[in-house]
Design a protein that fits this description.
- Two copies of one chain form a homodimer.
- With 219 residues, chain A is α/β, with parallel strands linked by helices.
- Chain A has two domains: 70 residues, Orthogonal Bundle (Arc Repressor Mutant, subunit A), CATH 1.10.10.10; 111 residues, NAD(P)-binding Rossmann-like Domain (Rossmann fold, 3-Layer(aba) Sandwich), CATH 3.40.50.720.
- Chain A is 41% helix and 17% strand.
- The first copy, chain A, has nine helices and nine strands.
- A seven-stranded mixed β-sheet of chain A has the order 5-6-4-3-7-8-9. A two-stranded antiparallel sheet of chain A has the order 1-2.
- In chain A, helix 1 crosses helix 4 and helix 2 packs across helix 3.
- Chain A starts with 7 loop residues before the first helix and ends in a 14-residue tail after the last helix.
- In chain A, 32% of the residues are buried.
- At the A-B interface, helix 1, helix 5, strand 9 and helix 9 of A face helix 1, helix 5, strand 9 and helix 9 of B.
- Chain A binds a DNA duplex (30 and 30 nucleotides) through helix 1 and helix 3.
DNA sequence: ATTAAGTCGTGATTAACTTCACATATTCAC
DNA sequence: GTGAATATGTGAAGTTAATCACGACTTAAT
């Protein structure tokens, strides 16, 4: 499928570029340089040029990049012409935050349905997304291939097992549990407690210089 | 401060190790091998041994690691003996999720206060954390050095500026905005929309093999 | 005591990614 | 047109991290 040549680090930055290009177009800008882009997304301009170069020569020397062309290119590359359907498991505070987040706005990714065990929530809608009972998950899931996991950690393994059996191929896991899946299922962990603790650790042990940025700010 | 020799990639994994060691101790286990640890946290066992080795010889050949010793060591290394105070800016769904999350349980990191612009929320408490008006931020912040930003993107720059002036040194930024800060302030971005989009991109363009894991599952 | 099995710590290697630096091409002002 | 300024695309170098593979040591069983 496509060029598998594109480094993963580059792939992770593509959505960021895409979003910012959308902003630029809405502002009516027609051209942009890697330097401008760099300041906006906080990625070194050489890295941006390298990233783009994996897809060929998208820019013009002495000019920069044409916003509309670049945007069209990324739209295709990021499959933005087809809607990606997502399921959300666990309608707590974090889950609710996702339901109220309008991903479709410039992502063409949509949470189609949500599940929870709380009878108070079942049958309601949040952000236009219907909430079903977790027991009905298998029959409701249909052909959805991506799930967001915002449930208590102790439920993670059991629910994951059920998702995998039903054919889910991608899981965005917000539980602290390190879930086990077959080789053909991709899991991205986002562990809020660890992110916070890591930030604190860096603050105490990797002091940044007031001037002369030998170390980068974000990672 | 300490050894700056520890790779950032290692530092990011320390909180993960720490949490799992806590679990082990609660289960009454007294010893653990890098192989066991590897299966639990999904990090290659050689990487774990390498990570630990930056702190000296913590294990014993043919035996593994003593859970209690290791735990005590990491407690010191991760400064778990002193409480780290954190402020939360923006009490929406995402912010509320944080307030209800008991970080202190095994982190010794505590959200001390929260701010919001909504008069409905000001004066209340969530998860034991008092909510103040955003206009009172400067006078209430005191000596807190770390902030979690869960506000709308368009507010991000203005609030960040105020936080920086007040002396905040670390920001966990959940807004899509790429905020600008002086060199001595550290920002970690967690961009939920981008995480989701990146996962979808990987699913479509980097298919995983059912067997023979040439590519890793998590990143 | 001897042996087999287990496990660490690490030198060496490989891999992945970032950044530098510059030849080359384009634009723009006058 | 001409020259100065601007920017790309990329070879090469640098940086960081992951992984291999094995010597050295420990444990435990017989």
């Amino acid at each position: 499928m496509d060029q598998n040549k594109i480094p993963q680090a580059t792939a992770k930055r593509l959505p960021l570029y895409y979003r910012f290009l959308n902003n630029l177009q809405m502002q009516g800008k027609t051209r942009v340089s890697s330097k401008e882009l760099s300041e906006a997304v906080k990625v070194d301009s050489a890295t941006i040029r390298r990233d783009f170069s994996y897809f060929g020569a998208l820019g013009k020397k002495g000019y920069g990049y044409n916003v509309e062309y670049l945007l069209g290119f990324f739209r295709k590359t990021l499959d933005q012409d087809e809607l990606t359907e997502v399921a959300l498991i666990g309608v707590g505070n974090l889950g609710t935050a996702f339901l109220n987040y309008n991903f479709t706005k410039n992502n063409n990714t949509k949470i189609m349905l949500a599940f929870d065990a709380d009878p108070e929530k079942v049958g309601k809608e949040i952000g236009g997304v219907p909430i079903y009972h977790i027991d009905d998950m298998e029959e409701r899931l249909g052909n959805v291939k991506v799930a967001i996991l915002t449930i208590p950690a102790q439920e993670a393994d059991r629910i994951t097992e059920r998702l995998v059996v039903k054919g889910i191929k991608g899981i965005l896991n917000f539980t602290p549990a390190r879930i086990t899946v077959p080789d053909d299922v991709r899991v991205h962990h986002i562990d809020l407690a660890i992110e916070l603790q890591a930030l604190v650790y860096f603050l105490k042990h990797y002091p940044l210089e007031k001037m002369g940025n030998e170390e980068e700010n974000t990672y």
